[in-house]
Amino acid sequence: MEREFPIVRRPVAGRRTPVVVSVPHYGTEALPHITLDDYGEPRFETFAYGFADTFASDLYGDLHEHGATVLATPFSRMFVDVNRRRDDFELHDDEVRSRRGVVRTHTMREVAIFTRPLGVAELEARLRAIYDPYYATLDQLLGELHRTYGYALLLDGHTGSPRRMQDHQVIIGTRHAATCDARLAATVGEIFTRHGFEVHQNISGYTGGNIVATYGQPQTRRVHALQLEINASLLMTTSREEYIAHITRGGVPDKAEANIARVRACLAEVLAALPSVLATLHP
Question: What pTM, to 2 d.p., does this model score?
């Protein structure tokens, strides 16, 4: 890749905590070689933005200033979704087909997004260039913290589709307490609740993706992992109904600045509180 990949932002010396914040759906960019002519319809070009997590960069992008190490990808999950299993796609006559897997080749109505089919060899090249380095970097960052502290915590940060999350404002996913000690999840939940948000845990569809499932091994490795999902409807002034039509036209929703500030305040408190809870779990 010509640009920095993956994105890694480290805290200044002396402020580092045993927390990594992963933002797998941070990016809105297309791959460098993709042009408008590659899309089946011109409007499909905006899918790269629509498949990103709305305003994730506003919430999680600068959390290195609060002691966490931040990992993110600049590329839209339409091209490679690093929060899916590496083999999460289907093959039809050596053509990759995927509506919601490690890559997106078709819409939910089975319409091809691109003019040219995606072959297995091309997908494998993408995975080696984007998917594998993301996990290798996450391995490295968590390993550094584990060697320093004897434990680590991975917070996988997301903003969720208003259509799918409905009225759930904040969802914490821990694979039903398998990937993270309950006291850490409770600490996160208490902070968001105190700031006036409704918090739920392990709602169906939001129990934790592949990253949390892969790295959350609190008993055997002393690495805790939780997924944090913030309903994007809180972060914008656009209604749920208008949102899809808006981004389909290539627009960016107007930000609800006050709510974004509230969530950012919660995240700052979370990152201040988690290290001491971790220390009590692993004295």
Answer: 0.94
Q: How far is CA 160 from CA 57, 105, 163, 231, 235, in A?
A: 13, 21, 9, 5, 10
- Kindly state the helix (H) or strand (E) to which residue 189 belongs, with its residue range: helix 182-194
d(CA 121, CA 74): 23
CA dihedral 153, 73, 111, 253 (to 10 degrees): 90
231/131 Cα distance (integer angstroms)? 26
| 93-110: average pLDDT | 91
b vs e for 143-169, b when ≥16 Cβ sit within 10 Å of the residue's Cβ? ebbeeebebbbbbbbbbbbbeebeebb
Neighbour-count burial of 112, counting CB atoms closer than 10 A to its CB (0-12 exposed, 13-18 middle, 19+ buried) = middle
Nearest C-alpha neighbor of 224 from the set 274, 179, 281: 179
Burial class (CB in 10 A: 0-12, 13-18, 19+), 174: buried
Burial class (CB in 10 A: 0-12, 13-18, 19+), 20: buried
Cα–Cα distance measured from residue 263 to residue 94, given in angstroms and rounded to the nearest whole number: 45
The yes-or-no verdict on residue 122 having pLDDT over 50 is yes
As a whole number of angstroms, the distance between CA 55 and CA 255 comes to 8
